[in-house]
Amino acid sequence: SKVFKLKNQFHGLPKEADVNLIEEIVPAIKEGEFLAEAVYVSVDPYVRGLISTINPGDTIFGSQVARIIESKSKDYPVGKHVVGEFGWQTLSIGKNEINKIGFPAPWIIPDIGNLPLSLALGVLGMPGNTAYFGETEVCKLKEGEVFVVTGAGGAVGSHVGQIAKLKGCKVIGIAGSDEKGRWITKDLGFDHFINYKTSNVAEKLAEYAPDGVDCFFDNVGGEISSTIIYQMKKFGRVCICGSISTYNNDSGDLPKAPEIQTPIKMKCVTMGAIRVLDYKDRWLEGINQNLQWIKEGKLKYRETITNGFENTFNAFVSMLQGGNIGKAIVKV
Ligand code: NDP
């Protein structure tokens, strides 16, 4: 198996010298196990967020779509494709158990017709379920509400914004490139786009949402979040999903974002959070709903695919810097 191992703990933006790509012999499978060959590897923000929980020499985290090539488990027949959090490696041994960081047991991809299997890492997988359960369980959007999402050109953000459109909301997406902005407004139907790198977010938001924001889905954290929280409506809701603007900050200093207690108190804003791994028991519910929306033409997706397993690390760093539109994927 080809395997990416952590060489040095990441500091700031991860560097190529922080990882090793090595070859490893995979042991024979035991009763209850299966052997799977990676087809697509996912590069996700949580890999950066959780890296300090592993040690040099450990395999780097990562989910993948893999084909079962050998099996001693009746739950995992040879030839089926599974999604597993096996790490960045080309051959993996799996079994029917929740993985050590809490991901669901390897799940066999249901029949998705002619759609690409890579979608099981994006719109029909963990990010898609984050958008689905984030909306249904936390945001609970109502028709006519003003919905703001950051990271709007990425996997979760582009998806949850479309669900908000399906619920009849006015949707404002914030992201870091005009190309992302064109995609979400022209193809996905978002009402407005704000480029946080080139425009004044507070001013633009006040223009697009003059009466304030009903619900804010936060993928980014930091200063942009505070800016948006200052423009919530009375009894507005915030759904915290992630804080990618802080993941490379391991200086030990607390990020200096404007205080949010005052606007939260004055507007009686409610803050909630989505943690998709809390919905393991309902995993296929989200996937089936997202699949149905895709089939009905109500949910669109995009992938940024990097070819070659050996380019996984580069694809990861590019994603952290905004290089992806939609879901960042590596085709092995
Ligand atoms: P994306 O596809 O959105 O990719 C990450 C994007 O983050 C980049 O493309 C970049 O886009 C943006 N970004 C990077 N740095 C910054 C920054 N400093 N400020 C603003 N934006 C930045 O990733 P995902 O959709 O997979 O994840 C989005 C968020 O959701 C992350 O915070 C992730 O941790 C979180 N998440 C949470 C889950 C949960 O259960 N709570 C589950 C899955 C994801 P741009 O060009 O706009 O800068």
UniProtKB/TrEMBL annotation:
Its EC number is 1.3.1.48, 1.3.1.74. One of its GO terms (biological process) is prostaglandin metabolic process. CDD domains: leukotriene_B4_DH_like (cd08294). It holds the Pfam family ADH_N_2. GO terms for molecular function: 15-oxoprostaglandin 13-reductase [NAD(P)+] activity; 2-alkenal reductase [NAD(P)H] activity. Keywords: Acetylation, Fatty acid metabolism, Hydroxylation, Lipid metabolism, NADP, Oxidoreductase, Phosphoprotein, Prostaglandin metabolism. It catalyses: 6-trans-leukotriene B4 + NADP(+) = 12-oxo-(5S)-hydroxy-(6E,8E,10E,14Z)-eicosatetraenoate + NADPH + H(+); 13,14-dihydro-15-oxo-prostaglandin F1alpha + NADP(+) = 15-oxoprostaglandin F1alpha + NADPH + H(+); hexanal + NADP(+) = (E)-hex-2-enal + NADPH + H(+); (5S,12S)-dihydroxy-(6E,10E,12E,14Z)-eicosatetraenoate + NADP(+) = 12-oxo-(5S)-hydroxy-(6E,8E,10E,14Z)-eicosatetraenoate + NADPH + H(+). Monomer or homodimer. Belongs to the NADP-dependent oxidoreductase L4BD family. PANTHER family: PROSTAGLANDIN REDUCTASE (PTHR43205), PROSTAGLANDIN REDUCTASE 1 (PTHR43205:SF7). This is Prostaglandin reductase 1. The lineage of its organism: Eukaryota, Metazoa, Ecdysozoa, Arthropoda, Hexapoda. The gene is LOC108732407.
